[in-house]
């Protein structure tokens, strides 16, 4: 990778309870979550988390409720203090920050989008969008143009003078995103930002986010419990279960090589043809195939290739990146890739 | 012979008991008993008295009676009274000035200035002409039956006391909302202030301050009426949406910014409900405080009771009801205005 690591989490532990330090010793000796709860009345929130987040990428942290994903994202700006471990942002350990430095990080270094929007109900949409700037001490007149610009960018041109309760849920979350963008911080934390929205609007918002990311290249940490959403957005996918990382990596890689029954279960229900992309199943070669049926881009998903081939399994396509061939794709390989992972079939057979 | 003699004799305390006996004058009851010669009559089990202070005193004269306990309290209070006054007098003196100033100001301004100004305030806070009409009608009615002066005195006292309640109550409520220890310590005090019969407030105050000073009733009213505004400020701030507070934290607000830009504005409907309650309770107390020379409609009620002037008492009572309705409607309407301007 040619990018830099923006956020790095090392050996992060979080234990909830009256004496987390003592409980931490037990956890390090190998005590599990249920046992810890039963014997010592401490809840294991996060266990030995190690994640690197690349600059300019969307890192999606996925897990079911109770897996610790919301806890994890709140460690990045220290809304929750860890029990032990290290979080470095641009090489600086956030846990060493004093109150002043931490406030500066929260004001200028990161912004956050919340599941329940968390807008200020007594302020107009415009004032909400400019919240990060008003916190830094700017007057309404000073941040107005900036706030209006971002409101327009998320599609809320004429709504600046309304109050949040006058907007629909999707529009409120647009305000939430405008608020985060207006802070001009390099890092954006999104805590289940789209989970409260209905599916159509959610899909719209995902497209909006990808579109914004295309031009802004922020480092985004996105939390979700929805695998489809995770696969759509993620450059780097981290799957959490019961407070520990089960698997992390490129989403396509996880899809092709799941290493845990938990993940296999997870991915067994998704539409593989829509999620898998040509580049993850192609054969890498610069040799042109004997009979090429045409060119496909490495970013195309399999669904579009199937549509193109009209279901004919005998075809072979040239895979190109910016016009140059980087591999070939045999339709037979493609259909084999659509078969759920072997482990999954075994898993199902044993049920 | 009294019931619990055996207790003291078995403990060997007879000598100590008899020490107290010598100079105590004989009570009327004892004298009667003696003359009738019925002293030695046995008490049946049905009449067994609880071993209370008075019952034990009968057996042992050196044992204190219950009146001696209350007397001790009085004497203790009187003993610290002077030093307490040295501290409290200057601290509370401004209250007298405020009350006297407000009473003087409102009584010496001609009615044709006071009534329009009051109506102007009503219009300003409620933006409702209907309410202005109602208040104008009520005030004119009171003035027409020559109760204007009394009503204005009552209003002046309520304005001063309610203002001071808000001035002190809101910061106390904020402090309570920020610290659980503070809340734990304050709530019993608030409970006591709220349940203590209103007359009881007056007793220590009469000892502490002279009845001619207006701060005497001022303090009684404030102590009684400050409770709801404290409670509801505390509650309002604690009820502010946790998600919004988290967002404020995440965007790096200082606790000062959080308080003034998020918590107080969002708690305002609750705080205003507290202010409404405080005003209503001031009105209740200002009537009782007329017992200790608070001027106003309460004086007329008292006069009605003392002189058996039924009409005076009833009409004054009606005047109080009218004031209560005015104050309640005006504060509620302005509260509703705040509510609609910031629906969640």
Outline the structure in words.
The complex is a heterodimer of chains A (351) and B (344). Chain A has 351 residues and is of the alpha/beta class. Chain A has 17 helices and 14 strands. In chain A, the strands form three sheets. In chain A, strands 6-7-8-3-9-10 form a six-stranded mixed β-sheet, with helices on both faces. A four-stranded antiparallel β-sheet of chain A has the order 2-1-4-5, sandwiched between helices. In chain A, strands 11-14-13-12 form a four-stranded mixed β-sheet. Chain A is globular, with a radius of gyration of 23 Å. With 344 residues, chain B is an all-alpha fold. Chain B folds into two domains: 5-64, no CATH class; 80-343, MetI-like fold (Orthogonal Bundle). Chain B starts with a helix and ends with a helix. The A-B interface holds A 77, 79, 103-108, 110-112, 114, 116-122, 131-132, 134-135, 163, 165, 183, 189 and B 241, 243-244, 246-247, 249-254, 257, 261-262, 265-266, 341-344.
Radius of gyration of chain A: 23 Å
Strand percentage of chain A:
15-25%
Give me the side-by-side strand order of the main sheet of chain A: 6-7-8-3-9-10
Runs of chain B in which pLDDT lies below 50 for 5 or more consecutive residues are none
Q: Uncertain segments of chain A of ≥5 residues (pLDDT<50)?
A: 347-351
SS field, number of helical segments of chain A: 17
Count the strands of chain A? Answer: 14
Terminal CA distance of chain A:
41 Å
Q: Indicate the radius of gyration of chain B in whole angstroms.
A: 28 Å
Mean pLDDT across all residues of chain A, rounded? 86
How many structurally independent domains of chain B?
2
Q: How many strands, which pairing sense, and closed or not: the largest β-sheet of chain B?
A: none
Main sheet of chain A, how many strands, which sense, barrel?
A: 6 strands, mixed
Figure out the total of helices of chain B.
15
Helix-strand pattern of chain B: HHHHHHHHHHHHHHH
The chain pair with the largest interface is: A-B, 27 and 20 residues
Mean pLDDT over the residues of chain B: 87
CATH class of the largest domain in chain B: Mainly Alpha
CATH architecture label of the largest domain in chain B? Orthogonal Bundle
Oligomerization status of the protein chains = heterodimer
Q: What class would the helix/strand composition of chain A place it in? A: alpha/beta
């Amino acid at each position: 990778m040619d990018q830099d690591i923006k956020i790095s989490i090392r050996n992060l532990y979080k234990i909830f309870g009256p004496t987390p330090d003592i409980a931490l010793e037990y956890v390090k000796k190998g005590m599990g979550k249920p046992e810890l709860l039963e014997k010592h009345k401490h809840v294991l929130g996060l266990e030995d988390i190690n994640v690197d987040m690349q600059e300019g990428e969307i890192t999606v942290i996925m897990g079911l409720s109770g897996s610790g994903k919301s806890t994890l994202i709140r460690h990045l700006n220290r809304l929750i203090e860890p029990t032990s471990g290290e979080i470095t942002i641009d090489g600086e350990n956030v846990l060493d920050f004093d109150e002043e430095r931490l406030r500066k990080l929260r004001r200028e270094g990161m912004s956050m989008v919340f599941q329940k929007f968390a807008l200020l109900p007594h302020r107009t949409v415009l004032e909400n969008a400019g919240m990060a700037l008003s916190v830094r001490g700017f007057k309404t007149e000073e941040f107005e143009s900036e706030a209006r610009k971002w409101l327009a960018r998320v599609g809320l041109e004429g709504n600046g003078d309304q109050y949040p309760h006058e907007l629909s849920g999707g529009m409120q979350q647009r305000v939430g995103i405008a608020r985060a963008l207006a802070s001009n911080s390099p890092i954006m934390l999104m805590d289940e930002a789209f989970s409260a929205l209905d599916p159509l609007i959610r899909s719209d918002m995902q497209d909006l986010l990808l579109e914004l990311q295309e031009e802004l290249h922020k480092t985004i940490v996105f939390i979700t419990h929805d695998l489809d959403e995770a696969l759509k957005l993620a450059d780097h996918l981290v799957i959490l279960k019961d407070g520990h990382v089960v698997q992390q990596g490129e989403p396509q890689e996880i899809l092709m090589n799941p290493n845990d029954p938990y993940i296999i279960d997870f991915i067994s229900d998704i539409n593989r043809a829509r999620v898998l992309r040509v580049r993850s199943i192609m054969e890498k070669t610069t040799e042109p195939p004997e009979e090429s049926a045409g060119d496909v881009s490495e970013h195309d998903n399999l669904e579009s290739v199937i549509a193109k081939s009209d279901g004919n399994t005998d075809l072979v396509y040239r895979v190109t990146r910016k016009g140059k061939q980087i591999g070939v794709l045999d339709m037979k390989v493609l259909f084999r890739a659509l078969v759920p992972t072997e482990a999954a079939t075994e898993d199902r057979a044993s049920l | 012979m009294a019931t619990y003699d055996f207790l003291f004799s078995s403990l060997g305390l007879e000598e100590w008991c008899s020490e107290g006996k010598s100079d105590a004058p004989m009570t009327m009851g004892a004298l009667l008993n003696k003359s009738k010669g019925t002293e030695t009559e046995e008490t049946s089990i049905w009449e067994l008295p609880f071993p209370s202070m008075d019952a034990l005193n009968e057996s042992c004269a050196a044992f204190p009676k219950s009146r001696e306990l209350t007397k001790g309290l009085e004497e203790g209070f009187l003993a610290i009274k002077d030093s307490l006054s040295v501290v409290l007098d200057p601290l509370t003196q401004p209250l007298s000035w405020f009350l006297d100033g407000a009473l003087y100001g409102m009584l010496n301004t001609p009615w044709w200035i006071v009534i329009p100004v009051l109506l102007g305030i009503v219009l300003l806070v409620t933006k409702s002409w209907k309410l202005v009409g109602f208040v104008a009608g009520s005030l004119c009615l009171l003035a027409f039956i020559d109760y204007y002066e009394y009503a204005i005195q009552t209003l002046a006292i309520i304005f001063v006391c309610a203002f001071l309640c808000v001035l002190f109550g809101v910061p106390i409520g904020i402090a309570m909302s920020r610290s659980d220890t503070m809340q734990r310590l304050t709530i019993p005090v608030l409970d006591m202030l709220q349940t203590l019969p209103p007359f009881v407030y007056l007793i220590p105050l009469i000892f502490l301050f002279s009845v001619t000073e207006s701060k005497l009733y001022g303090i009684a009213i404030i102590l009684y009426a400050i409770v709801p505004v404290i409670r509801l400020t505390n509650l309002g701030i604690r009820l502010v949406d946790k998600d919004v507070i988290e967002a404020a934290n995440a965007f790096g607000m200082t606790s000062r910014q959080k308080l003034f830009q998020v918590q107080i504005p969002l708690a305002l409907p609750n705080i205003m409900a507290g202010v409404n309650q405080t005003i209503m309770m001031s009105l209740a107390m200002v009537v009782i405080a007329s017992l200790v020379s608070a001027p106003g409609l309460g004086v007329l009620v008292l006069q009605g009771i003392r002189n058996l002037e039924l009409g005076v008492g009833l009409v004054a009572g009606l005047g109080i009801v009218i004031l209560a309705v005015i104050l309640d409607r005006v504060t509620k309407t302005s509260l509703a205005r705040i509510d609609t301007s910031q629906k969640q």
